[in-house]
Specification:
Blueprint lengths: L1 H10 L3 E3 L7 E3 L4 E5 L3 E5 L18 H17 L10 H14 L4 E4 L5 E7 L5 E7 L10 E4 L15 H14 L1 H13 L2 E3 L9 E7 L2 E6 L10 E6 L10 H9 L11 H4 L18 E2 L8 E2 L1 H9 L5 E3 L2 E5 L6 E5 L6
Antiparallel strand pairs: 1-2, 3-4, 5-6, 6-7, 7-8, 9-10, 10-11, 11-12, 13-14, 15-16, 16-17
Length: about 350
């Protein structure tokens, strides 16, 4: 009996005896389902699980009949399920509980009834709350989880067998801090302008369409990794927008509230439209579209010229598709995105 009890606990650790005689048990057994041939379902039960129904183990004079009856019940129940679900082993649940206790239950916002989908809370330095959804797989931790988060950039974690929920959450908090400046820039836009789109922006949105006049707006796209850089902009307006009694140039002046330089007021040389590196205006089809942000300099460059120049400097550094360095003219900080070379 002692040997049988030991084996029973090893095979089905979620079964507990309810009486001293150990003839009545309560708990759960694991049933594995496979598909063979034309949809036939085969149920394999451990030797000692065959003694158990889902709720009770009672004395039986005919063990063979009991096993056949139990198999029949389980086959019918599993055959009626819409899809096959792999049930994790008991160790999966014990490890998950231990990891949640280590992480802190206050970080857990939600967990489904199958203990597979979790939502973890993260708070950034500005006090904004963010949610990370983690979907665990039946072979966790031997199989990496899946992650989804309300972020403007993809979230990923380098997964190893030593990784835990605490490691995932720590990496999530680091990502939030890295995006703090990006959200600060967007918060400023949301508070100080009329944002037309999106109406209810999420923390993953990088675009804002801002009203700047009657039937006229500007769409800006903020780079999450470099939010202080001049954003990509696009003017939007209805065909009937502006003053129909004025020409296009006057409407642009009114909307932008500027006076355009003209041959009557400025020398072309004073506009410095040539690239400060190759000293030409057109480089194949490209024009100088990168400008030093220092108002005392403002020198324009071709993207390809500036990219190659900065790459050749030992003091420059590259992060993702952006190179950071010094302006060739004034030595002030300047950045350029990776140039696209034609093959």
């Amino acid at each position: 009996p002692l040997k049988m009890e030991t084996l029973l606990m090893k095979e089905s650790p979620l079964l507990l005896p309810l009486n001293k005689q150990k003839t009545v048990y309560d708990g759960f057994i694991t049933v594995q389902v496979g598909l063979l041939g034309a949809g036939m379902q085969v149920i394999s039960l451990s030797l000692f699980a065959c003694f158990c129904s889902l709720k009770r183990l009672q004395r039986s004079s005919d063990l063979g009949s009991f096993i056949l009856e139990l198999k029949t019940v389980l086959e019918v129940a599993l055959k009626n399920r819409p899809d096959h679900v792999t049930i994790p082993p008991p160790q999966y649940y014990s490890q998950l509980i231990a990891e949640l206790e280590s992480l802190g239950w206050d970080k857990l916002l939600f967990i489904d009834t199958e203990f597979c989908t979790l939502r973890l809370k993260g708070v950034d330095s500005s006090g904004h709350e963010h949610v990370l959804t983690v979907k665990l797989k039946p072979k966790y931790p031997f199989e990496a989880p899946e992650y989804t988060a309300d972020l403007p950039v993809p979230f990923s974690v380098t997964w190893t067998l030593q990784s835990t929920l605490a490691h995932i959450h720590k990496r999530f908090l680091a990502e939030l801090e890295g995006l703090a400046e990006f959200w600060s820039v967007l918060d400023e836009i949301d508070v100080q302008t009329w944002v037309l789109e999106p109406e209810k922006p999420s923390r993953a949105d990088t675009m804002r369409r801002i009203a700047i006049g009657n039937n006229v707006s500007i769409k800006v796209e903020i780079d999450p990794r470099h939010p202080r850089m001049l954003p990509d902009c696009c003017l939007l307006g209805a065909e009937h927008g502006g003053n129909p009694d004025c020409g296009v140039l006057q409407n642009l002046k009114d909307v932008l509230e500027i006076e355009f330089p003209s041959p009557a007021t400025h020398e072309k040389s004073s506009l410095s439209t040539e690239c400060g590196i190759c000293y030409s205006f057109r480089l194949e089809s490209a024009i100088p579209d990168q400008v030093c942000n220092d108002p005392r300099c403002g020198q324009p460059f071709h993207q390809a010229c500036l990219y190659e120049w900065l790459r050749g400097l030992p003091t420059s550094r590259q992060s993702f598709n952006t190179v950071f360095g010094e302006c060739p003219y004034c030595s002030k900080p300047i950045t350029v995105k990776t140039a696209v070379h034609k093959q």
